[in-house]
């Protein structure tokens, strides 16, 4: 049912209403979610709600490039952060609720790669409807594989994180297996949510989410390199990104309940 609702909302959001009505819809949305528009074009510029959701920054955010630091891939609230359980290979969804890292990564992540994550770092980024919805490469990196895992589209806000066990593992998601320039492994998991029409990737338009698929599928890449800060794609509405890093490599610079911004330094890569 949540998938159907998301598709219907996606159709509504894509409609180009008459200009005056569209401006009213846009301004109402901005006011409702208290969106700070100082880095974006004014409400009247966007021809649909979808265009407003996926708005671009007016100018690039500055940051100092470093091989030893990860920057935040997005604007988000850190709902949980910590160490992946070494026995059950579990991470926290929210206090009192955990999720299985094995289930989250799906069937196309190798067992030995999952083992790398025991004692590693996890970070949950929640993108609210008011946030900038694009995501970017946290470091100079190579994308080795993308796995699309179909599923439900439950909301991923704090209310539902406290309500639904292993929510991240039930929702539709795309798992990117990545490697730093120093060959350290990490995973970025892009989790769908209610009213998320699509999870888009600029480097591969063949990854089709919320498209009625029932089986997992994967895409292998040959030397797909992205540079720190480079745009990777965007959510069509707010959602969640989960970072998983192999043990004894990634040291966090942020804390739970911290609001982070794309380009902010969040993790040290220890060599």
Record the strand order, biggest sheet: 11-7-8-9-13-5-2-15
Mean pLDDT: 88
Q: What gyration radius follows from the Cα positions, in whole Å? A: 18 Å
Helix/strand structural class: alpha+beta
Whole-number tally of structural domains? 2
Main sheet characteristics = 8 strands, antiparallel
List unreliable stretches of 5+ residues: 1-6
Strand-and-helix sequence, N→C?
HHHEEEEHHEEEHHEEEEEEEEE
| Shape assignment | globular
**How many runs of DSSP E, i.e. beta strands?**
16
Helical amount: 10-25%
Question: Treating each run of at least 4 consecutive H or I residues as one helix, how many helices?
Answer: 7
Topology:
Blueprint: H1 2-14, H2 19-32, H3 49-53, E1 69-71, E2 76-83, E3 90-94, E4 97-100, H4 101-105, H5 111-115, E5 121-126, E6 134-136, E7 141-149, H6 158-161, H7 167-170, E8 173-180, E9 185-191, E10 199-201, E11 217-226, E12 231-235, E13 240-245, E14 250-252, E15 259-260, E16 265-269
Antiparallel strand pairs: 1-16, 2-5, 2-15, 3-4, 5-13, 6-12, 7-8, 7-11, 8-9, 9-13, 10-12, 14-16
Describe this protein's structure:
- The chain is of the alpha+beta class.
- It has two domains: 2-53, no CATH class; 69-269.
- 18% of the residues lie in helices and 32% in strands.
- It is built from seven helices and 16 strands.
- It has helices at residues 2-14, 19-32, 49-53, 101-105, 111-115, 158-161, 167-170, and strands at 69-71, 76-83, 90-94, 97-100, 121-126, 134-136, 141-149, 173-180, 185-191, 199-201, 217-226, 231-235, 240-245, 250-252, 259-260, 265-269.
- Strands 11-7-8-9-13-5-2-15 form an eight-stranded antiparallel sheet, with no helix packed on it.
- The longest helix is centred in the N-terminal third of the chain and has 14 residues, at 19-32.
- It is globular and about 55 Å long.
- It starts with a helix and ends with a strand.
